[in-house]
Design goal:
CATH class of the largest domain: Mainly Alpha
Keywords: Chaperone, Cytoplasm
Main location: cytoplasm
Helix content: 55-70%
Order of helices and strands: HHEEHH
CATH architecture of the largest domain: Orthogonal Bundle
Radius of gyration: 26 Å
Organism: Panicum virgatum (Blackwell switchgrass)
Subcellular location: Cytoplasm
InterPro entries: PDRG1 (IPR030482)
Oligomer: single chain
Number of strands: 2
Length: 185
């Protein structure tokens, strides 16, 4: 076989391998997103059951200050779970464990703790996969595989984009960009 053809074949195999890894990572991102959405829905249902929101439960500092006003014999710190609130944390609820078809009757506090930990793990995995997809896309673009669609510089600028909101004068408002109008044709 001609040496040039062999080099071309190796380059194509290399590009296809990288592209397949990107597709697999994107598929995993979609699966993670489905699980994250299901977890978020479950946590919302648990909060509704406990009649709490993320901000409705007083902070531990507020609880300490209220208890210090009235008595000196009570415990100083009363830990209040932001999800449980005043709900009985020992009340049992059904939970299907992530990645299995097994249902278990577990205490309310354990159920939402498991879901919150799983949500944190999925967030970390998603960020890792997103950075992997960006890196591999950049590698593929530098090899010239996307030359017909995008230039390597264009892909590099897209990959290096970050999500940082611009803060307003008081730090509370987001600055609105100029109005963009699209024209077809």
């Amino acid at each position: 076989m001609d040496p040039n053809m062999k080099e071309l074949q190796e380059a194509l195999v290399d590009i296809e391998t990288d592209a397949e890894q990107v597709l697999l990572a994107r598929h995993q991102l979609v699966e993670n997103d489905k699980i994250r959405n299901a977890n978020r829905e479950a946590l919302t249902a648990l909060r509704k059951q406990a009649r709490t929101t993320k901000t409705s439960v007083p902070s531990p500092f507020e609880v300490i200050m209220k208890e210090m006003e009235g008595s000196s014999g009570k415990q100083l710190i009363k830990e209040v779970c932001p999800t449980c609130g005043e709900h009985d944390p020992k009340e049992h609820t059904w939970l299907m464990f992530p990645g299995s078809d097994i249902f278990a009757r577990v205490p309310f506090h354990v159920a939402h703790t498991v879901l919150e930990k799983d949500q944190e793990r999925l967030d970390i995995d998603t960020k890792k996969l997103q950075s992997f997809v960006k890196d591999k896309s950049l590698v593929i673009a530098e090899k010239g595989a996307l030359a017909g669609r995008f230039g390597a510089d264009t892909v590099k600028s897209l990959v290096s984009l970050t999500d940082t909101p611009k803060s307003g004068r008081e730090g509370r408002e987001l600055v609105q960009g100029p109005e963009v109008k699209y024209q077809l044709g």
